[in-house]
Amino acid sequence: MEEHEISKAVVKRLPRYYRYLGDLIEARVERISSNELSRMMNVTASQIRQDLNNFGGFGQQGYGYNVKYLYQEIGRILGLDKIYSMVIIGAGNLGQALANYVKFEKRGFWIKGIFDVNPRLKGMTVRGIEIRMTDELPQFIRDNQIQIAALTLPKAGAEEVVPILIENGVKAIWNFAHTDLNVPGGVVVENVHLSESLMQLSYNLNHTDL
Q: How many CB atoms lie within 10 A of CB 76?
């Protein structure tokens, strides 16, 4: 199929499809129609069909979707059929919480190391993963072919460490720091600004008829 640009809105919905399909597999559901999936997800059946048609459709009229096949295909589209090596930079509460989340490995994201500047944390382990000092980061990235870095540190620290990550071959940054990062082409950034998400929740709370 010829490559074409997929909208960010579609990409944002794909993990949600993947999650619901995973639940259906656990419930031993083999086939599902777009209308049935629509009712589960509160997304119109038309939207589901349009989203999936960006990648070939995967369903047959009057037959629906093979749940396991669609789950595998969306996983492939999301790149979940690959293994990624990852580091966490910032070993505070958030960094340690991410390190303790065992489902990352099930999705192919393997946390190889945790880094911090606080010498009191050196040598400690989180779920068997050693906390190292950031001066070890460049060599560690190269030795372990790290592709993804999660930043769970303050703004200034994030801006300081990004050039080190890029110079040593990191291609993707999962950014929890309270700043927007400037990166060159070929490096992708996914921002997770928790305070902004909470402010959006506050807005909806105050502008929705309950």
A: 12
Task: Assess whether 112 and 190 both reside in one domain.
Answer: yes
Specify whether 58 is located in the same domain as 89: no
> Encoding tokens for residue 44?
């119109």
**Residue ranges of the chain with per-residue pLDDT less than 70:** 1-4, 59-62, 209-210
Among 77, 112, 137, the domain boundary falls at 77
Angstrom distance (rounded) from CA 194 to CA 196: 5
- Please report whether residue 202 resides in a domain: no
CB 11 within 8 A of CB 74: no
CA–CA distance, 42 with 155 (Å, rounded to integer): 37
Three-class SS of residue 121?
A: helix
- Split into its structural domains, the chain has a count of 2
Q: Mind listing the pLDDT tens digit for each residue in 124-178? A: 999 999 999 999 999 999 999 999 999 999 999 999 999 999 999 999 999 999 9
Indicate the pTM of the whole model. 0.87
